[in-house]
Amino acid sequence: xxxxxxxxxxxxxxxxxxxxxxxxxxxxxxxxxxxxxxxxxxxxxxxxxxxxxxxxxxxxxxxxxxxxxxxxxxxxxxxxxxxxxxxxxxxxxxxxxxxxxxxxxxxxxxxxxxxxxxxxxxxxxxxxxxxxxxxxxxxxxxxxxxxxxxxxxxxxxxxxxxxxxxxxxxxxxxxxxxxxxxxxxxxxxxxxxxxxxxxxxxxxxxxxxxxxxxxxxxxxxxxxxxxxxxxxxxxxxxxxxxxxxxxxxxxxxxxxxxxxxxxxxxxxxxxxxxxxxxxxxxxxxxxxxxxxxxxxxxxxxxxxxxxxxxxxxxxxxxxxxxxxxxxxxxxxxxxxxxxxxxxxxxxxxxxxxxxxxxxxxxxxxxxxxxxxxxxxxxxxxxxxxxxxxxxxxxxxxxxxxxxxxxxxxxxxxxxxxxxxxxxxxxxxxxxxxxxxxxxxxxxxxxxxxxxxxxxxxxxxxxxxxxxxxxxxxxxxxx
Length: 478
Ligand code: NAD
Description:
By secondary structure, the protein is α/β, with parallel strands linked by helices. It has helices at residues 39-58, 61-77, 79-90, 94-114, 153-164, 178-190, 205-214, 227-240, 262-274, 291-305, 326-342, 374-377, 393-401, 416-425, 462-466; strands at 5-7, 10-12, 18-23, 26-35, 130-138, 141-145, 168-172, 198-200, 220-224, 243-247, 252-256, 284-290, 309-310, 344-348, 350-351, 364-367, 384-390, 405-406, 408-412, 430-433, 449-450, 468-476. It has 2 domains: 5-248 and 453-476, 3-Layer(aba) Sandwich (Aldehyde Dehydrogenase, Chain A, domain 1); 252-442, Aldehyde Dehydrogenase, Chain A, domain 2 (3-Layer(aba) Sandwich). It is built from 15 helices and 22 strands. The longest helix has 21 residues, at 94-114. Residues 145-149, 172-175, 205-206, 209-210, 213, 224-226, 229, 232-233, 247-250, 281, 379, 381, 407, 448, 452 line the site of nicotinamide-adenine-dinucleotide (NAD). GO terms for molecular function: oxidoreductase activity, acting on the aldehyde or oxo group of donors, NAD or NADP as acceptor.
């Protein structure tokens, strides 16, 4: 499969540099070719999105909703090929990938339904002959910049609310998820979305991402990716006074208290740490365990981690595939080497595939490092979790909050008072009792505190606030 750009309803192949995409599960297997765009391709997309805006914004919510419902139907019809392309391109296990496509379907339907919801307030005026009310209007042209780790769900949880609010979109996906992006855009096009409403431009963030943010007439930007890039995006947008949201990194903790039910806790901690090979912004990468249960927890964890195996992403029984790319593998392996040097191994999974075949990293739990060690402070974004003992609940909470990030945090306990205190005091945008750190529902607001997010939330109703602006209207009828 070759990548193409979708600009004003036309598929175009840029004439610049190309990159061969290899399957991270088996690097001898070529999946496709990416044709990288230049600044001039991005400018064309900018013109297309601006040109399509007036007509799209003038449609009723019901009319816009019909395109989202149709796209949702097409996602269901094409779930197998969509999941297959994504698994082959970025290594997420196929069964998990199909779940991700279904999440996208639910998001499309959820935001389609918002097209007909009353969305303003009537505010009493000082005169009885004045009707005063608020209404939502679109931002205009929005830039959507997405990472590779949720190649379908993240673009949809941005684009569906952006489109239903009447914005037009320029989408710059991550390089390692570009073929999936082409499939997604094809389905929007098949649903009959008017030309220019969604424009897809494939290429490098440092090249066309910068063009998009610095040169194109955009009215908003929604970014998900690393904290380092997100800070640059925010700075550029702030200089231009463009509305922005940046969803960034995490270093999420699961806190296991002495009274935790281990039969519930262990699967939730493992799923949080190792599903998607630990490449979720909400992945559990610190496991903080109260001393009184430390030994029992460690033994139970060892038993279960030893049953985890890595396998090719397209294996329907795969729990853990490879990491997404060579560069991702190199980064994660630096932490594995650090763990081999500085930490003590608690448990490691097994390989059901020759690890040399692709970008595989064995699931690993380590301990014995200080709280200032990079294994405890850095976002690793791979299947490596660090176990930290805590004397009591207070120390566990302090360790949980001892990070620059604040995306997600979970506590495992049977004591509702401690649980509720954790919900109050854990410094994270998403806090949970007896649930893994990953896997937040689409109808609820998603986002973090501290260095994990800027000032907005995604998904749920919160997304509609981001993608629209409020006008206060007054009518004198005396
Ligand atoms: P990344 O920051 O490298 O890239 C994200 C996107 O930004 C890509 O499309 C990339 O091409 C683009 N980009 C890169 N440089 C750019 C620039 N100068 N200008 C404009 N765009 C640019 O992140 P990644 O490696 O793709 O994703 C992994 C990161 O994403 C992790 O840190 C993870 O925690 C984070 N993430 C966060 C959330 C969340 O909701 N908080 C969700 C998923 C992933």
